[in-house]
Design a protein that fits this description.
- Helices cover about 40% and strands about 15% of the residues.
- It is an alpha/beta fold.
- The strands form two sheets. Strands 3-2-1-4-5-6-7-8 form an eight-stranded mixed sheet, with helices on both faces. It has a four-stranded parallel sheet with strand order 10-9-11-12, sandwiched between helices.
- Bound molecules: ligand SAJ.
């Protein structure tokens, strides 16, 4: 149980991929943390000292801080000195950001706020969200205007390396006024070793969107190059490796598209708010989304040509379902989308491979070595480490969308 003799130092609203690691990490630095989630299963799991997400080292961290009483989970918040909003901000059909979870978490906290409290939003949000939430607070609690500290501080941790990056990444901290920025910096300094960079709320909100949009644009450039090189019959992997020998060139890697709930989502927040100005950002999103269809089309065409030229049934191995190498997360995965299109549109027998997933009631998964051996067409969709060990069999047609053979 949470240490009763000590007040709650901070409440974290949202115990997902970012909220739980951040709450546990702050607790590991001796703070008394209450993690709040709307999902009773998540609350029960955490209070057993266990976790519901895959992240290296997180299980031990959560177990130790729950046993020590520094972290407790609950369905409802308690009064504390600081509050952090770390809930999802998906986008709606029209690519506009859905901040309803941020609003709901804010409204839940409003009755608990008191003078000198710190209120921080970490959820990736459209510019001006923090000011909007401040408006919600002032509307219900006018006596707190300019009496509490409100800031925005985006996370930038890489799934699979979250715990290390929570401690060591620099953080950008933007208050609705300089006092709020300072108060937030003082709190983060209790558990972050990275440099804490002060700014205002809008700049901090835009910084997060900018970081991920810049990566999406760079990946779109690599994906566009890969489609040009297929036409020009140039090995795009060789081309990029050579171009990157230039001291000031750093082209990223083509893939089967861009997945995950960050890079494929965040740029749309800028595009929907600044549609006239965000031309490159929008076109990059479209290019990266188109790349998945381009890959699916290539596989389907190859299967058709194989059957017409050989008279044999094409057997295609779709190698990888996850949204990026060496993880088990299929959210917004282009490889999953490509595989689904091949399953529904091709004339082939399709072998689906994802070595990072054990059992799965959606996909009839095949072991990657067995799939390679049985298939006559190999579609490399995700660059999982084990795939690089497979010796190439020149009798098979290989479509390399992620550089396995580079
Ligand atoms: N990808 C490529 N080619 C590349 C790099 C990535 O096709 O050269 C693809 C990946 O396969 C994946 C997608 O892009 O489908 C996103 O991969 P990622 O490596 O960007 O990883 P994420 O989305 O898990 O993490 C990103 C990171 N942001 C940046 O690197 C700027 C991370 O720091 C953020 O915290 C995270 O988004 C987030 O939560 O916003």
């Amino acid at each position: 149980m949470i240490k009763k003799d000590k007040p709650v130092d901070a409440v974290f609203m949202g115990l997902g991929y970012i909220g739980l690691p951040t709450a546990a990490f702050a607790a590991s630095k001796g703070l008394n943390i209450l993690g709040v989630d709307v999902n009773p299963t998540v609350v029960e799991t955490v209070n057993r000292g266990e976790i519901h997400i895959i992240e290296p080292y997180l299980a031990n961290l959560v177990k130790s801080v729950v046993v020590s009483g520094h972290l407790q989970a609950a369905l409802k918040p308690q009064t504390a000195g600081a509050y952090f909003i770390v809930v999802p901000t998906p986008f709606k059909q029209n690519h506009r950001a859905d901040i309803s979870y941020v609003e709901a978490a804010t409204k839940t906290l409003i009755p608990h706020l008191k003078t000198n409290d710190l209120f921080v939003i970490e959820s990736t949000s459209p510019v001006m969200t923090t000011e909007k939430m401040a408006g919600l607070i002032w509307k219900e609690r006018p006596e707190l205007k300019d009496k509490i500290y409100i800031a925005y501080c985006p996370e930038r941790v890489l799934p699979g390396n979250v715990i290390y990056e929570l401690e060591h990444n620099d953080r950008v901290i933007g208050g609705i006024n300089p006092e709020s920025t300072q108060k937030a910096i003082e709190f983060y300094a209790k558990f972050v070793k990275g440099t804490l960079h002060p700014t205002n709320a809008r700049t901090a909100e835009m910084c997060k969107l900018t970081e991920n949009s810049s990566r999406d644009v760079q990946i779109a450039f690599a994906n566009e190059l890969s489609m040009i090189c297929e036409k020009a019959e140039i090995n795009v992997w060789e081309l990029i490796a050579l171009a990157n020998r230039h001291p000031r060139v750093n082209i990223l890697q083509p893939g089967s598209g861009v997945g995950g709930h960050c890079i494929a989502v965040d740029p749309w927040f800028i595009v929907s708010d600044y549609p006239e100005q965000a031309q490159i950002i929008k076109r990059s999103r479209e290019t990266n989304d188109y790349k998945a269809d381009w890959c699916a089309n290539r596989i389907i065409e190859t299967c058709r040509r194989f059957e017409s030229e050989t008279g044999q049934e094409p057997v295609v191995a779709c190698m990888g379902l996850a949204f990026k190498p060496d993880i088990d997360d299929l959210r917004e995965s282009p490889a999953k989308y490509v595989t689904s299109r091949v399953l529904s549109e091709s004339n082939a027998k399709v072998l689906v491979v994802e070595p990072n997933i054990r059992r799965n009631d959606t996909w009839n998964l095949v072991n990657y070595r067995e799939a390679y051996q049985k298939a006559n067409i190999i579609a490399w969709l995700v660059g999982h480490k084990p795939f690089y060990e497979i010796q190439q069999d020149k009798s098979k047609i290989e479509l390399d969308f992620c550089g396995i053979r580079k």
